[in-house]
């Protein structure tokens, strides 16, 4: 006979929430968000056609029928864990998470922070590929795509996690050689440009009300990360996105000679295909990157 089984991820979320008496604690145990546990429990309730929890402002309690259900399935999870250990099969199976992100963002923000994710989740292998192309042009189906936004794409959920502005940055050594006391002093410096972002300096100079300024020299690179590296090396002054130069500013590799004006910029967002939105590993990574973004 064909077995009729409920969605197993939903059953796992219910068992943890019922055993611990808390969606929050269940989320921590399962390494997912509170919302993911709630979503899985609702999925199970819809499948069963019955409520499992009585919900209050800050707590939940099992319904009488759900208590009986939990008493029956709880031992099954324990027996499954014991059987797994007995036959030498690892309880956690290594999984690969595929991420696609812009090259400069990956180099200057994501890579320096990935060690914290790997330390917390050593069983997860993260494969990062870089691309600046639009989301709809990607040939491969990635677990998480990082792009500017917020934008709306059919079949994808979007969440912003990191905001930024743009302002001039340079090395402290360059500033010591040729001081910058006011924006007009930029005429004594080399301005660093990126070919794919030709409007950064003209827009900033216009906002600083010195649109006609002629710098001592200009130097253009084809990749933004090269432009920023040239600024660190003291070659000239770049328009730095605050999110991507925050570590360099904190470490003293770069300084921001002017606090204003600042050019507004798009936020960094995660884009996840709808069919992957409930994946525990995807939820885990997106929750982590949002926490990192808030701390930047």
From TrEMBL:
Gene3D superfamilies in the record: Periplasmic binding protein-like II, Winged helix-like DNA-binding domain superfamily/Winged helix DNA-binding domain
Entry superkingdom: Bacteria
PANTHER family with a match to the protein in the record: HTH-TYPE TRANSCRIPTIONAL REGULATOR, HTH-TYPE TRANSCRIPTIONAL REGULATOR TRPI
Protein name listed in UniProt: Transcriptional regulator GcvA
Keywords from the named record: DNA-binding, Transcription, Transcription regulation
Gene: gcvA
Family designation: Belongs to the LysR transcriptional regulatory family.
Keyword Transcription regulation found: yes
InterPro entries with a match to the protein in the record: LysR-type_TF_proteobact-type (IPR058163), LysR_HTH_N (IPR000847), LysR_subst-bd (IPR005119), WH-like_DNA-bd_sf (IPR036388), WH_DNA-bd_sf (IPR036390)
The keyword Iron-sulfur appears for this protein: no
Domain named HTH lysR-type: residues: 6-63
Species annotation: Paraburkholderia sabiae
């Amino acid at each position: 006979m064909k077995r009729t089984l409920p969605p197993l991820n939903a059953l796992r979320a219910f068992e943890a929430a019922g055993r611990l008496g808390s969606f929050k604690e269940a989320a921590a145990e399962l390494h997912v968000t509170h919302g993911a546990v709630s979503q899985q429990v609702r999925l199970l309730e819809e499948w069963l056609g019955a409520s499992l929890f009585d919900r209050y402002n800050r707590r939940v309690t099992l319904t009488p029928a759900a208590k009986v259900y939990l008493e029956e399935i709880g031992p099954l999870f324990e027996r499954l864990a014991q059987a797994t250990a007995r036959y030498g099969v690892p309880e956690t199976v290594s999984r690969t998470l595929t991420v696609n992100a812009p090259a400069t963002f990956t180099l200057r923000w994501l890579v320096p922070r990935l060690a914290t994710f790997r330390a917390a989740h050593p069983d997860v292998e993260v494969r990062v590929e870089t691309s600046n192309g639009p989301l709809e042009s990607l040939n491969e189906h990635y677990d998480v795509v990082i792009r500017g936004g917020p934008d709306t794409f059919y079949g994808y959920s979007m969440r912003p996690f990191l905001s930024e502005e743009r302002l001039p940055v340079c090395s402290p050594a360059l500033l010591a050689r040729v001081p910058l006391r006011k924006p007009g002093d930029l005429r004594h410096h080399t301005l660093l440009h990126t070919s794919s972002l030709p409007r950064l300096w003209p827009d900033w100079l216009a906002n600083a009300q010195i649109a006609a300024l002629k710098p001592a020299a200009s130097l253009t690179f084809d990749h933004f990360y090269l432009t920023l590296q040239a600024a660190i090396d003291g070659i000239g002054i770049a328009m730095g996105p605050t999110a991507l130069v925050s570590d360099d500013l904190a470490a003293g590799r770069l300084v921001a000679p002017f606090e204003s004006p600042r050019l507004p910029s798009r936020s960094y967002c995660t884009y996840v295909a709808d069919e992957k939105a409930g994946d525990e590993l995807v939820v885990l990574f997106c929750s982590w990157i949002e926490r990192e973004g808030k701390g930047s």
